[in-house]
Specification:
The protein has helices at about 5-15, 30-45, 60-65, 100-115, 120-135, 185-205, 220-240, and strands at about 50-60, 70, 80-90, 140-145, 150-155, 165-175, 210, 215. It has about 250 residues and is an alpha+beta fold. It has 2 domains: about 5-45 and about 185-240, no CATH class; about 50-175, no CATH class.
Length: about 250
């Protein structure tokens, strides 16, 4: 059986896992859609394959300087977090002959070629320049909330030059609509199916005890309980086995 590659195929897969079309799954289509959205949200937030590190090149506008923030909707609507913002300014340009990095690199290049210097000297020099960079122009602190969609950089925005480029590092959701292979993620299929099963049990529990032809009765409460236990186990499995490890800063 081929893996689902679209949202519709994913929905049909989950319903078949619950017994459809042999068994009528008493869940409205919109309820199924809601449970799929719920599964995707948990997958994006907690599964290591639900998000990915990204880098965006952004050009500062006059409106950004006036606002004092960057509207991240213009960059990526699925952006989850922002880790750092690098200023790609004159201090990193190598085409300025008066730049200290340019002069040091030029000297070291010819020194390395003639054998008058070694790599140890070159590495220590670059580390020294990096230390000066951190002391004189330290990395800017940023604030970002995905529900606000505004990236604040804690500095005087007038120090930015209109048209200057920034490099933004962060994490974005893996949207299955863009990356269809995500619909085939095994744990996502199990989780969405369990959520739909819980919804099914919740629907049937409203008619608990009502007899049907053939002495059949609804047992929505049992279905609901089974699904709740499955969801708990799946969430624990994701958090223990599939969650990305935290990043540590050293220095």
């Amino acid at each position: 059986m081929p893996q689902p590659r679209t949202r519709q195929e994913f929905k049909e897969y989950c319903l078949r896992a619950l017994g459809a079309p042999v068994i009528e799954v008493n869940v409205d289509d919109q309820q199924v859609e809601d449970r799929i959205d719920q599964a995707l949200q948990f997958f994006n937030d907690w599964h290591g394959n639900g998000s990915q590190r990204v880098y965006y090149k952004y050009q500062v506008t006059e409106q950004d300087k006036t606002n004092g923030y960057i509207d991240t909707n213009t960059i990526d609507r699925d952006l989850q977090t922002v880790n750092r913002v690098f200023s790609i300014g004159f201090n990193l340009q190598m085409n300025n002959i008066f730049n200290v990095r340019y002069q040091m690199a030029l000297t070291d290049f010819y020194g390395l070629r003639t054998g008058q210097m070694n790599m140890n000297y070159f590495v220590s020099t670059m580390q020294y320049l990096e230390m000066l960079q951190q002391l004189l122009d330290p990395e800017k602190q940023v604030r970002f909330n995905k529900h606000v969609n505004r990236l604040y950089v804690d500095m005087n925005w007038q120090d930015f030059v209109t048209g200057q480029y920034l490099l933004i590092e962060g994490y974005t959701n893996v949207n299955p609509e863009d990356y269809s292979d995500a619909w085939g993620e095994p744990i996502l299929k199990k989780y969405a199916t369990a959520l739909i099963k819980k919804q099914w049990g919740s629907n049937l529990s409203k008619y608990s005890g009502i007899p049907l032809p053939g002495n059949v009765t609804f047992n929505g409460e049992r279905l609901y309980q089974e699904a709740t236990e499955e969801i708990t186990k799946i969430e624990e499995e994701i958090l223990i086995k599939y969650q990305s490890p935290p990043e540590f800063m050293t220095g």
